[in-house]
């Protein structure tokens, strides 16, 4: 029997009863779930941790997609890890 991990996340603004004003300021809401075999997750996690170590990122903190780690010239932004979630 296989073991799977499920990662579920949401993006956008959710409101059960949406009015026009709310829709203009929050035009979308998405929820997605990603399923992965536990054995595949272990491999992926090992590679991910190596990348974080290479760039001296904290292993136990979440890095948001919007955090820019390097500028085009290769220099780091002043504080690329703030604010971190978690």
Q: How would you sum up this structure, described in words?
A:
This protein has a two-stranded antiparallel sheet with strand order 1-2. It has two domains: 4-54, no CATH class; 56-86, no CATH class. It is flat, with a radius of gyration of 18 Å. The chain has 86 residues and is α+β, with helices and mostly antiparallel strands. The chain contains two helices and two strands. The model has no long low-confidence stretch (mean pLDDT 79).
β-strand amount: 15-25%
Query: What distance separates the N and C termini?
Result: 33 Å
Q: How many structural domains does the protein architecture include?
A: 2
Described by strand count, sense and barrel closure, the largest sheet is: 2 strands, antiparallel
Per DSSP, the total helix count is 2
Main structural class? alpha+beta
Q: Please give the radius of gyration in angstroms.
A: 18 Å
Q: Would you tell me the overall average pLDDT?
A: 79
Write down the secondary-structure element order: EHEH
- Can you count the beta strands? 2
Unreliable stretches covering 5 or more consecutive residues: none
Helix content: 25-40%
Query: Strand order, biggest sheet?
Result: 1-2
**Bulk shape:** flat
Would you kindly provide a brief summary of this structure?
The protein is of the alpha+beta class. It is built from 2 helices and 2 strands.
Keywords for this entry:
two-stranded antiparallel ribbon; 86 residues; 2 helices; 2 domains; 27% helix; alpha+beta; flat; 21% strand
Task: Describe the SSE topology.
Elements: E1 4-12, H1 20-25, E2 29-37, H2 38-54
Antiparallel strand pairs: 1-2
């Amino acid at each position: 029997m296989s073991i799977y991990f499920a990662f579920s996340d949401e993006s956008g603004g959710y409101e059960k009863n949406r009015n026009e004003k709310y829709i203009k300021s929050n035009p979308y809401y998405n929820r997605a779930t990603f399923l992965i075999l536990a054995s595949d997750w272990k491999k992926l996690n090992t590679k991910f941790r190596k990348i974080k170590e290479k760039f001296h990122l904290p292993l136990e903190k979440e890095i948001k997609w919007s955090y820019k780690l390097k500028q085009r010239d290769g220099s780091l932004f002043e504080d690329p890890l703030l604010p971190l979630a978690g």
